[in-house]
Write a structure and sequence with these properties.
Elements lengths: L1 H31 L30 E3 L16 E8 L5 E3 L3 E7 L10 E6 L5 E4 L2 E9 L2 E9 L5 E6 L2 E10 L3 E2 L5 E10 L5 E8 L5 E4 L1 E9 L4 E9 L4 E8 L2 E8 L11 E6 L4 E6 L4 E4 L2 E9 L2 E9 L4 E7 L2
Parallel strand pairs: 2-9, 10-17, 18-24
Antiparallel strand pairs: 1-3, 2-6, 4-5, 4-7, 7-8, 10-11, 10-14, 12-13, 12-15, 15-16, 18-21, 19-20, 19-22, 22-23
Length: 334
């Protein structure tokens, strides 16, 4: 009996000891479990933020802030190369462009001649994720007439995000005529030229025949614009400044007159067909030319000479125009 009671006593002592140590072990194991890391610190988008670009009437352009904390994780090389994400920023403060982009990727040929670089990929996605073999590349981001080209290096097995800060803005022209009336549709076009001149005094033409009311996307800077009403000599030029992330609106007012020509055998007679017309200014320079029985021209106010060629004969007449004139000029063959 003493042996049995002794054995039972030792078992009771052992059970009591296990009961004391088990909560400690469970508590210890729970303390060593890693805590839930929770969501990463990604800044939420605020649609009322003043940092968003406000371009009126631009349904094809959506701009949202870009958070530099968005970084891809390092990983092994993909099946077709290393992953490279391209991001276009409107300004340095992180406004991301989400449409209207064209990306072109060139493999660096290792030559001083950029024309020898080979085009390897083109994308119209806002932020494409490309698979590229390791090496050096030139990437061009184009947003309208705004663009940026820079060199990137792709390393094997290391994914990357490549931001491109275009420093782009918008330019929109409004054209008025004489006393402030809107110019009729399809009568005005304007050219955008560089502010700088070359050694011969010429500017670089950036854009030709743009229409009023259309937003032209340009790199920030100073530009020279030339607006032409009617296709002849009613022109207005101005220097404008385009700021990154902003829309610059320019209003120009043209002074002009409309004149219709007719070649007749007598005053008030029928217009002769197939007449060749040439308009000269007071200096004798050719302003405009046309062919027809009743051609109409829009001209700046001033003094002119018109010549009419018909059946091998040339007839002339001098005339003057004032702002807002709408008139008809007859040239009599006699």
């Amino acid at each position: 009996m003493r042996g049995i009671w002794g054995l039972m006593g030792w078992r009771a002592i052992l059970a009591f000891a296990l009961a004391l140590t088990t909560p400690l072990l469970m508590s210890d194991a729970h303390a060593q479990q890693p805590a839930n890391p929770g969501p990463q610190n990604v800044m939420p988008l605020d649609p009322t933020s003043a940092d968003l670009l406000r371009l009126p009437d631009t349904p094809n352009t959506t701009v949202v802030p870009w958070t530099p904390s968005e970084r891809p994780a390092k990983s092994g090389k993909g099946r077709n190369g290393t992953s490279v994400t391209l991001v276009a920023l409107l300004t340095q403060d992180g406004q991301r462009i989400d449409s209207g982009l064209v990306w072109r990727v060139y493999r660096d040929a290792g030559s001083d001649d950029p024309d020898r670089n080979v085009l390897v990929q083109t994308s119209r996605e806002a932020s494409p994720v490309l698979r590229l073999p390791p090496g050096d590349y030139y990437v061009n981001a184009a947003f309208g007439r705004a663009h940026l080209t820079r060199r990137i290096t792709v390393k094997e097995g290391v994914e990357s995000v490549e931001p491109f800060v275009l420093n782009a803005g918008g330019l929109r022209l409004k054209a008025l005529v004489n006393d402030g009336e809107p110019a009729p549709p399809n009568t005005v076009k304007f050219d955008v030229l560089s502010d700088e001149r070359d050694q011969f005094g010429n500017r670089t033409r950036i854009l030709s025949d743009a229409r009023p009311g259309v937003i032209v996307r340009l790199n920030s800077g100073i530009y020279h614009i030339v607006s032409t009403y009617g296709g002849a000599n009613s022109r207005v030029s101005a220097d404008v400044t385009v700021e990154a992330g902003k829309l610059t609106e320019v209003t120009v007012t043209h002074s002009a007159a409309r004149v219709t020509f007719k070649l007749v055998t007598r005053a008030g007679g029928e217009a002769l067909p197939d007449t060749q017309w040439r308009i000269l200014d007071a200096s004798g320079d050719v302003v405009d030319e046309s062919v027809g029985a009743l051609p109409s021209h829009i001209l700046a106010p001033g003094k002119y000479t018109v010549t009419a060629r018909s059946a091998g004969q040339v007839y002339r007449r001098e005339f003057s125009l004032d702002k807002g004139d709408v008139t008809e000029i007859e040239v009599v063959t006699q």
